[in-house]
Amino acid sequence: MNDREVTEVDDLVARARRGEPRAVARLISWVEDGSRLLPEVLARLPSRGQVFVIGLTGSPGVGKSTMTSALVSAYRARHQRVGVLAVDPSSPFSGGALLGDRIRMQDHATDEGVFIRSMASRGHLGGMAASTPQAVRVLEAAGCDIVLIETVGVGQSEVDVAATADATVVILAPGMGDGIQAAKAGILEVADIVCVNKADRDGAESTAREIRQMLRLGALREGWSPPVVTSVAAKGDIHDLVDALDLRHEWLSEADHLRARRRERATAEILALAQGRARERWKARLDPEVIDGVAEGRVSPFDAADGLLSGD
Ligand SMILES: Nc1nc2c(ncn2[C@@H]2O[C@H](COP(=O)(O)OP(=O)(O)OP(=O)(O)O)[C@@H](O)[C@H]2O)c(=O)[nH]1
Ligand SMILES: [Mg+2]
């Protein structure tokens, strides 16, 4: 870093710590873009590990954004500061897809105790697995007590978010075999809490029962058995979910649970960063002749990979 950059980083970090929305937004953009200055920023934002991170995931349209907004209201009523990250891992050009979310967040747009950012992983070497915990650190520095992360339920992204979250909420809607689909997709495996939303429709209770039965068959993770609750997010009826989240928070605070979570999160972050960096390094080192060799079947891809690794 040159002197001008040092001043810029110091200034931004100081303003973010005072909770200035524009500085927070700027730093999260840096996270998103994988800025060269990121290591310097993060060195100035040590985590106290006090923030409670809630991940919300589920199929399109189940009510994640509506739920996020309702949860923001619930925590604001307790005078807690809340950060919201709408994570869109699928498209490098987020915007359109998240417009609806922004509109739903309008209730909170003028509230100084709420930071709302959408985030993709443009150019970030470690992908969402590395950028999500970094964005959380920025929000924590800005004084957030709670961070809500909404992610579209597709493949790797919810696993990455689950690695960052203290409580991963899998949201389902009644009917349409959603419960069975979720089980098939393995999405229930990342659930700390399952919430059947749209309970104003038929079948919410039977879906919840079905999920409870499936979960009973699965192994307990870290001695926590995931509660299954119902909600009507659109009407703000999310009391059972808030209770389940409180329970999870209390459970984590006990004994070594929180420490174990933090270590898991740190492991995921380190591996994601290392993977991203190693990949770049290997890519730069790839020999075109070896590539041709593998493409034409003269060289084994295993040998080519070993060759790359031996250069480390
Ligand atoms: N009947 C009913 N509708 C709901 C409820 N919660 C949300 N909705 C409606 O479901 C639709 C989708 O809600 P969103 O919150 O946008 O769902 P989402 O999961 O964020 O959707 P994506 O971000 O597109 O994946 C909206 O029309 C909501 O008004 C509910 O409890 N009951
Ligand atoms: Mg949404």
Please provide a written account of the structure.
- The chain has 312 residues and is an alpha/beta fold.
- The protein folds into two domains: 48-253, P-loop containing nucleotide triphosphate hydrolases (Rossmann fold), CATH 3.40.50.300; 268-310, no CATH class.
- It has 13 helices and seven strands.
- A seven-stranded parallel beta sheet has the order 3-2-4-1-5-6-7, sandwiched between helices.
- β6, α9 and β7 form a beta-alpha-beta unit.
- α1 crosses α2 (21-33), α2 (21-33) packs antiparallel against α6 and α6 runs parallel beside α7 (156-164).
- The radius of gyration is 21 Å and the shape is globular.
- The two termini are 26 Å apart.
- Mean pLDDT is 85; it is low at 91-100.
- Residues 58, 60-66, 100, 152, 197-198, 200-201, 232-234 line the site of guanosine-5'-triphosphate.
